[in-house]
Amino acid sequence: MTDSRYLKRTIVKEQIQSKYLNETRNLRIYLPPGYNEIISYPVVYCQDGEEFFNFGRIATHANRLILDEGVEPFIIVGVEVDTSIRTQEYAPFGSRFDNYVSCFAEEIVPYVEQRYHARQTPEERIIAGDSLGGSVSLHLALLYPHLFTRVISMSGAYYEASQEIIALEQDLSWLSIYMIVGLQETEFQADTGTYNFVQLNRDTKILLEERGAKIHYDEKEGRHQWGFWQNELPDALMYFLKS
């Protein structure tokens, strides 16, 4: 993607003071070509915001999709994370999980919607993440279905605690989730152990299907890394944003 049109991107850096986390949290906000304050836009919220922009090249992908693929212009909000406490914030057994999801839903989303022309219905918000970012995105939808009904999960880290939470749900017919996992992710060493991400995603897909969720599910050649996810990101975005 060397076309100069794709590389001319408007990315605004913001900081939000969180009462839940008792700290500031950095945001990266991509505004689409021709951003106009008299128009409202769908929004894609991303965990691991810095990585989505730097390694996922999401802003460049967005420009190409909007300029060449007929995708409706959209805003991207990347929520940055301190990788040293990432598991504590993203995993449901983490010590900061409750505070993080409260910050995301009750502080970050209102902050964005007050300052940018973002659409404010769950059908116009997409929440995305990789690995634990994928699972925390699903947990946010389960906790705040009035905010999020559309999830992009790339190699979601659906550990036992996450699967137990999903199993408690009865009706997920309101949920639409795009799931992708790499076939070479069968022995991934995470900070909490070694996991077969292919099996974790297969099992979670079944749990979600049994509860009526709408699922797009793919297994492809790939490893648990951005080299895989970057290539899959455009299709994931197109799934929800293509008119």
Count of distinct strands: 10
Major pleated sheet: 8 strands, mixed
Tell me the Rg in angstroms.
17 Å
Strand order of the largest sheet: 1-2-4-3-5-6-7-10
The total count of helices amounts to: 9
User: Could you estimate the helical fraction of the residues in percent?
Assistant: 25-40%
Tell me what portion of residues adopts beta-strand conformation: 15-25%
Shape: globular
> What structural class is derived from the secondary structure elements?
alpha/beta
Multimerization state: single chain
Q: Could you report the average pLDDT, rounded to the nearest whole number?
A: 95
Distance between the termini: 23 Å
Indicate the low-confidence ranges by residue numbers: none
Strand/helix succession: HEEEHHEHHEHEHEEEHEH
What does this structure look like?
The structure is a single chain. The protein is 39% helix and 24% strand. The chain has 243 residues and is an alpha/beta fold. The strands form 2 sheets. The chain has an 8-stranded mixed beta sheet, with helices on both faces. The chain is globular. The chain starts with a helix and ends with a helix.
